[in-house]
Amino acid sequence: MEWKTAVCHQAEIAIRSTKQLIESVSEELFSKKIHENKRSLGELIAHIAVICEADLHIMKEATAEEMNVFYQRCNVATKEECLAALEHSFRVFQKELLQAEDMDHKTTSYWGVTYSRAEWYIEIIAHLYHHRGQLHTYVTVLKQETDVTLFE
């Protein structure tokens, strides 16, 4: 399996199970927090929904101001909006990855970290899996029934 295809496959696993987790929770719980200093369930879901596309912008050296504009434009609140944004964000990521060339080309984020394109794609996958794990924890702590399989 080619490297890009493998990365897309791992992203698909994360997206599929994240969608199932989102679908398993009631929108009435979106305001709930499991810790006072952390995001609410809805805020976490909204963040996850745009991770792929947001991280691509960061990879392309978007400024902090440009990222703020992006996040304001992608303001999602309902379960339906979050699911649609998640799907859109993944499709943008998938298209970008499969068309990418020069995987050794380095770019720098607005906070100063420099990675090659290959490293950025790995970072995006890690970011997805990290927040999917958080979402699973939220769902578990909020005692929501879920039988979502997190790994193949």
UniProtKB/TrEMBL annotation:
GO terms for molecular function: metal ion binding. It comes from the Bacteria. Keywords: Metal-binding. A divalent metal cation binds at residues 47, 127, 131. Belongs to the DinB family. This is Damage-inducible protein DinB. It comes from Priestia koreensis. The lineage of its organism: Bacteria, Bacillati, Bacillota, Bacilli, Bacillales.
